[in-house]
Amino acid sequence: MTTLDNVFHLNDAHTTIKRELIAALTTFVSLSYILFVNPNILHAAGIDKGAAFTVTAVSIAIGCFIMGFVANYPIALAPTLGSAAFFAYNVCGEMKINWQTALAAVLVASVLFILITVLKLREKVVDAIPQDLKYAISAGIGLFIAFIGLQNGKLIVNSDSSLVTLGKFNSPAVWITLFGLTLTVILMAMNVPGSIFIGMVVTAIFGILIGQVEVPKAIISTAPSIAPTFGQAVFHLKDINTPQLFMVVLTFLLVTFFDTAGTLIGMTEQAGMVDQDGKIPRIGRAFVSDSLAMVEGAVLGTAPLGTSVESSAGIAMGGRTGLTAVFVGIFFLISMIFSPLLAVIPTTVTAPALIIVGVLMAGNLKKINWDKFEIAFPAFLTVIGMPLTYSISDGLALGMIAYPITMIAAKQAKKVSPMMYVLLVVFVIFFLITNM
């Protein structure tokens, strides 16, 4: 305990090894779906699915170790589905760029990411964002992940007439979600320790009993080789030689920059790490950690890694230090040989956890100064923009563009930092690049 306390400062964070372990298990179970979703997306780009599975697990593990030891944050780093979809469907699909060259573009963007991190540009940007908008970012991420949970649990489904609508209650998937949600809500209301994790385990068992969750056919299996993807990004750096590919690099850089910045702010706000001045301690180290994780992920052969919103589930269970992240990394390494067991954790089982965590994160709404319209409007755009655009970075951009405008209109321009005016221009360019 003494050694771990010296490394992770558990006593200072008012946490214990047991609490960090439970938090890590919760984050891992919530995030485990990425082991199957990410390879499926990358396979659409032409990458071997088996290699993508192993790369996903290894890259997450390395990223978590970096975040845990360097930044001492209870945050997992994993391939972001938004970046993975852009990689597979836009770059490799619409642009007809082979996946090896696309990985090289990710690697170049990752190196640029490290450069702007070392120059402390990212840190300056985060410090410039007003406290009310930081609360809005955290609450917006809460609504976003709750929306994902409602979709994963089939409680909310697509609708041609109204975009979304309520799911059908004769669906077995809905039964599993409602069972898990009801159980977890009861456990949370009773203040049962580890309630979210317990809810997921019992829900998985319930799914097996009603025949809707497949019983694993094996316990262990050999992890597939990463040889098909390892190093391809480096070998194809020479292919980054056209304006189109430079634009791909820039897009990866912009999307990842704003996505990870917004998520990091939300996660640290939820964990109570933000000080009274609105500053986030060790934020520079956290930014270095996710930058390095992007590099190692590209070299191994996956889409950009970033701060995982599922980390909020572990934070809600008491995770407060990097020990949580390290435990998550260990679980992902173990998962490579126990992959058949992960089949019993479909998205319907993890959906209740995301919904509950969304409720907890939405609590930051009460801290926003709603009485001042010049603050309320950009905060509202940030909060509502994330779930409605299905993008943390887009919601963040909407709020950042609106804030300087409303403050100028309210004759409060002097309270806006110069960096916020720079961000106004940057985010407008960001929209022009990513949405044209």
From TrEMBL:
Keyword Ligase carried by entry: no
One Pfam family matching this protein: Xan_ur_permease
Any one cellular-component term (Gene Ontology): plasma membrane
Keywords for the protein's UniProt record, in alphabetical order: Cell membrane, Membrane, Transmembrane, Transmembrane helix, Transport
Principal location class: membrane
Transmembrane segments: 20-38, 50-77, 97-121, 133-152, 172-189, 196-213, 245-266, 313-334, 341-363, 375-404, 416-433
GO MF term list: purine nucleobase transmembrane transporter activity
Membrane topology recorded in Swiss-Prot or TrEMBL: Multi-pass membrane protein
Subcellular location: Cell membrane
Keyword match Transferase: no
Recorded family membership: Belongs to the nucleobase:cation symporter-2 (NCS2) (TC 2.A.40) family. Azg-like subfamily.
PANTHER family from the UniProt entry: GUANINE_HYPOXANTHINE PERMEASE PBUG (PTHR43337:SF11), XANTHINE/URACIL PERMEASE C887.17-RELATED (PTHR43337)
This protein's name: NCS2 family permease
Species of origin: Lactobacillus apis
Upper taxonomic lineage: Bacteria, Bacillati, Bacillota, Bacilli, Lactobacillales
